[in-house]
């Protein structure tokens, strides 16, 4: 997903386009990695010195709720990234050191047919954590 598409999705869901939201999205769009709210705050304060941690956090959760952002938990803290948007069904490897991600096209759900007999799966999420080649 790109910034323009994300802003349009916010508008479609009844939320205003603000410069702060646009800047949050542009920070996330610059790199394919997960960011904690505190990391976004550090980046955005150069442009918006009075912005608070709570404002960043609320906006990240709002954008995750309308499926603009993807969220995961690293070291007990929520991290966010811009949703892939253009990819088909896939999963991610997430670097625990730098937060970079790599798409994984293989889905382990294909192997679980008999294990889940009688269960109705509504959704799933598969993430692998470790260190990327640059951080190894």
TrEMBL record:
It is found in: Cytoplasm. One of its GO terms (cellular component) is cytoplasm. One of its GO terms (molecular function) is zinc ion binding. Binds 1 zinc ion per subunit. The keyword DNA-binding applies. InterPro entries: FUR (IPR002481), Fur_C (IPR043135), WH-like_DNA-bd_sf (IPR036388), WH_DNA-bd_sf (IPR036390). Fe cation binds at residues 89, 124. Its main location: cytoplasm. Coiled coil: none annotated. Signal peptide: none annotated. Its cofactor is Zn(2+); Mn(2+); Fe(2+). GO terms for biological process: negative regulation of DNA-templated transcription; regulation of secondary metabolite biosynthetic process. Zn(2+) binds at residues 95, 98, 132, 135. Keywords: Cytoplasm, DNA-binding, Iron, Metal-binding, Repressor, Transcription, Transcription regulation, Zinc. This is Transcriptional repressor.
